[in-house]
Amino acid sequence: MTTVSEAGGFLVTTLPSPPPSSGASTAAAPSILPQPRNAPLKPGSAKESSIIDYVDKKLLGISRRYEKRFNADFEDEAASEIEGRGYERFGEVAKDLEDVIDVVWISGTPSLEIPYLLTIALTCCADLPSFPFDPRPTFHLLHKLDLAFYSLLRGTNSETGEILPGFEGGRGKVSTTEKVRMRGLVERTRVAVVEVAGKAGMEVTGLSGLDEGLTTTDDDDEMEGMEGARSEVGVEGNHGRWEMEVARVYEKTIVELGMSLDTGMGVID
């Protein structure tokens, strides 16, 4: 495990690659989300401004590298030295997006976490169809987003059960407008994953029916499944594994959103 300094004085922990799943390693599986601050950043503070500036620049860099994949004229020598070449695999996009997720999550600030995570989810959904199916990084990124959204919707860390910074006493709740936007992104992403996986020769059926029967239990089994998926190599010969993961994209979030929106669709706040 290594720790690197990011903008705004934050320390971002980089977790090592997980080993292949086993009964022993599953129990000690590392957290998907990093440990957040104990308290949210103060609005208008220098640290908050620094984080906003850093994340905005990172997201712009990701957008520019994506555009370089399709437009050679988009190259800018000065910018390329900082941003890098155009993306060749979705795994490269996923890695950069995960780095941004970690910085946003460490901020422990709902006013930053909710809008930025929605933006990251939109970027993932929009970029995914432009690349060949890259299952391991794709599912790891979507699993991290699922845990983050699920945690924000409940106000507690889904991995530790602790109340999230800024959610004490019912504060920091996700608004109905944000929930509606989140559900739209979740549904579109699930469709996009099915389509991209289909182009890779996979067949995934019954996805809409699964939405109604998803549960948020058996967390240990879920982690074991994700660890096993990440230990596989390539798509060829692993269709059964990947088909299972396709059906579980955003499974926690979609269940929580269904419970929340279907029982509280009053005035949109």
What does this structure look like?
- The chain contains eleven helices and two strands, in the order E-E-H-H-H-H-H-H-H-H-H-H-H.
- The chain has helices at residues 23-27, 46-68, 77-83, 90-106, 110-127, 135-154, 176-199, 207-213, 219-231, 239-247, 251-263, and strands at residues 2-5, 11-14.
- It has a two-stranded antiparallel ribbon.
- It starts with a strand and ends in a 6-residue tail after the last helix.
- Mean pLDDT is 79; it is low at 12-28 and 205-237.
Sum up the overall morphology in one term: globular
State the major sheet. 2 strands, antiparallel
The helix-strand sequence is EEHHHHHHHHHHH
Radius of gyration: 18 Å
Flag low-confidence runs.
12-28, 205-237
**Number of H/I helices:** 11
Kindly estimate the percentage of residues that lie in beta strands according to DSSP: under 5%
Give the class from helix and strand content and strand pairing: mainly alpha
Helical residue percent band = 55-70%
What features would you highlight for this structure?
about 270 residues; mainly alpha; 11 helices; globular
Write the layout of secondary structure elements.
Layout: E1 2-5, E2 11-14, H1 23-27, H2 46-68, H3 77-83, H4 90-106, H5 110-127, H6 135-154, H7 176-199, H8 207-213, H9 219-231, H10 239-247, H11 251-263
Antiparallel strand pairs: 1-2
Helix pairs in contact: 2-4, 2-5, 4-5, 4-6, 5-6, 5-7, 6-9, 6-11, 7-10, 7-11
